[in-house]
Amino acid sequence: MTLFSFSQSSDKPSGNPDANGSNNSAFVVTQSKLDANNISAWFRTNGSYNRDPSTGNAGFEWPKGSGKFARYASGMWIGCISGSDTLIAVADYAYDYQPGYVDNSGMPQGNNDPLYRIYSIIKGDTTSPDYLNWPVSQGAYLNSNGKPFFMGTQTMFFSMTDAYPHQSKQGSVVSLKAQILQTNWCYTNTGLGDVEFIEYRIINRSSSAWTNAYVSVWTDDDLGAAVDDAIGCDTMRNLGYTYNITDNDQEYGTAPPAVGTKLLRSPVVATGNNNDTVKYYSPPGSQNLIVKVGYKFTGMNIFNTWNNGSPQPSDPNTYSETYKVLEGMWGNGSEWIDPINNQPTQKTYSGDPVTGTGWIMSDGNDRRFLQSFGPFNMNPNDTQSVIVAQLIARGSSNLNSISQLRALSDYVQTVYDDNLQSVIAVNNISTEIPSQFILNQNYPNPFNPSTVIRYSLTANGFINLKVFDYLGREITTLVNEKQNAGTYEVDFNASGLSSGIYFYTMSADGFTETKRMILLK
User: Fold this and answer.
1) 318 pLDDT exceeds 80?
2) Does residue 407 share a domain with residue 430?
3) What global pTM score does this model have?
4) Cα dihedral sign, 111-112-113-117
5) Are 55 and 162 found together in one domain?
């Protein structure tokens, strides 16, 4: 992790974006890489990610160590109506966010406080400075035992706000007074080595309600060379993606990969209909289940795009143009028209390049795209959470890479729907190949509320480990994935269960065994 003084930049510059331009309020930004798996990506406390802070060049490297890059820059945008004002905060090539928070009087604090930085921890390392100084007071997650929560192999946290003077030309002069608690994590588990997860917890710290609000994830993907990129929108998967249209990229060569952003959790809106119910875990991967009756998720209802320059539409230049873009229109307020059915749409290029059907791009260029979630309303001190995953896959051709990306997207959705239980608690403690399959007795036993289950595998294969109650009803799936031979430990947290006898069963390559455990509260 490094520190630097920030100054404004604009458009899509080359060189160090923080070394030029004018800025009247220098502040300290920290940056760090999320790089425990096959992706190496920069994150910064000014809302930017995937951009190399030292050079201003692309900063999403894949595979890690290859010197090849698939994304140039990405960031979160927020827009709303507050009273008679349209309020916008963006992070693209200039940044409306700074590290810190908004105090109870509505004033921003912390942009020059070294404690408001990026914290990054590695699973199993309980002696690192960031683990020992985990910023609980800033909103970083804890586990059920009151310790830093390892959401993945690597977990990252920081707090930022737009309440300081905005820097971008696309943002409004007046801030939203939003506070954003950002958690990033990734896994080394089989099947998730090419995925990174991001959660934005967005808090309205102003004294006014936000109406018709949107949260958006923006990205400028340069998939190797930028000039031959095409974008697409998979509406069924809540997935936006970039692929190479020529099947021969200058950097990645033949059969270049496809890269994308998948929505996993969108803002919730009240419907007043008791048939509408949302369920989610807070934090993700915990046993703290939140159920809201009379609400629904917005989903990815907008997918917008523009070029780097002409032809139009191009980058929005004012806050009013930006808000139109967040709503799914051109910056001038014109609607998109789907050329296949001649109907207005808020989701551009929603066809299928693999089959050549629907609205797809016919040529490649330097594209940006934005996935927007809303509209919704937020009262003062309300919180909304958005969770996305950025993922990349490579197949036997440019179009097969899209198919592989979709398959990875489906797997990520399955893991998320399982509340990350199949990966979040599994720890490979030894790669030494044991002589036989073993399912050990959990320890401690009896336990309250957490226990550890150890098992050993003699060969690579698909492993399933489930917990059942005394009546044989399934409680949860702890492991459901392909794993290499070795010895593993998985944590089971029963904080939401009542005292009693429970069973856990492991199935692997024809081996099945069940053991009993006792929960005493």
Assistant:
1) yes
2) no
3) 0.82
4) positive
5) yes
